[in-house]
Design a protein that fits this description.
Layout (H helix, E strand, L loop, with lengths): L5 H10 L5 H13 L2 H13 L4 H10 L8 H13 L3 H20 L5 H13 L4 H14 L4 H5 L8 H10 L7 H12 L3 H10 L7 H13 L3 H12 L7 H12 L3 H14 L8
Helix pairs in contact: 1-2, 1-3, 2-3, 3-5, 4-6, 5-6, 6-7, 6-8, 7-8, 8-10, 10-12, 11-12, 11-13, 12-14, 13-14, 14-16, 15-16
Length: 280
């Protein structure tokens, strides 16, 4: 994509109907190009469409596809997360900002740390539980090493929604302590919402004897079906390293007290045996 063509494509994107194919194709093309000129065009569209939920709800999440987010894009999303009139748009922008930080981190860019610092400052200034939850999830999206210390205190919050966000935030932290903390949360937290989040977070942790044992315990012993369902999905990912997982899932397919959980286990087993899915 030639740099000189990007402003025109940006104007076409801004004028296109957000629910239309043209909007989708133009956004995909600019994000896929990922050049400074393409990102400048995307930033212009975001700023030109402030508080246009139909457009922003499509273009802002698409920015996560940028392999090397520019300083302009990060600044644009930071501004939107602070100034958008819509709470939903502010929350979305905050989450996307965390994801942009992760992209920068994966590229070993020194600009990833400032993104984390900005979000950390946001966490310190939160005034509502919803704001805290959103920023915790955004911090988790960065995958920064320091998420462990930032989110850790919130695991003791009296608000289950905050604890849920805090344990979710640990899923990509490159710290050996994360699996122990997540497992402990899955076993001990009194809220099903938090236990579901912990079970789901373990799907992003390389399986070990301890994580598989914890998931198996939740799968067979938790009294809440949503927790068992989440544990089922996560433990299934460990079946290659731990073949005994297949036995556990077969037992769930036959004996779980919840029809929904039994059906979910059966679907996984059928998919694993299907040549179309390559045993996945």
């Amino acid at each position: 994509m030639r740099p000189e063509s990007c402003p025109g494509l940006g104007r076409r994107l801004a004028a296109a109907k957000p629910e239309g194919l043209e909007f989708q194709l133009l956004a995909r093309a600019l994000v896929g190009a990922g050049t400074e000129a393409a990102q400048a065009a995307l930033a212009w569209v975001v700023e030109d469409s402030v508080d246009d939920w139909a457009k922003e709800s499509r273009i802002v999440p698409a920015l996560v596809g940028l392999m090397q987010p520019s300083e302009l894009i990060v600044a644009c999303i930071e501004k939107l997360s602070a100034t958008a009139t819509s709470e939903g748009l502010r929350d979305m922008s905050t989450m996307v900002m965390g994801a942009l930080g992760r992209q920068l981190s994966l590229q070993a860019s020194p600009r990833s740390k400032p993104v984390f610092r900005i979000l950390l400052a946001k966490l310190a200034s939160c005034r509502t539980a919803n704001d805290e939850r959103t920023v915790l999830l955004a911090l988790g999206n960065t995958g920064d090493q320091e998420v462990m210390s930032a989110a850790g205190p919130y695991l003791k919050s009296s608000n289950s929604s905050i604890r849920s966000a805090a344990v979710t935030a640990l899923r990509w932290v490159p710290d050996r302590r994360r699996s122990k903390i997540i497992c402990s949360t899955l076993v001990r937290d009194g809220s099903a919402e938090v236990r579901v989040a912990a079970a789901e977070a373990l799907s992003n942790v390389p399986p070990t004897d301890a994580t598989v044992a914890t998931l198996r315990s939740a799968l067979t012993g938790d009294q809440v079906s949503s927790v068992r369902a989440a544990a089922l999905e996560s433990i299934w990912l460990a079946r290659s390293k731990y073949p005994s997982v297949l036995i556990s899932v077969r037992n769930v397919a036959k004996h779980d007290q919840s029809e929904d959980v039994r059906k979910a286990a059966t679907r996984l087993l059928e998919r694993a045996n299907s040549p179309r899915h390559g045993g996945r």
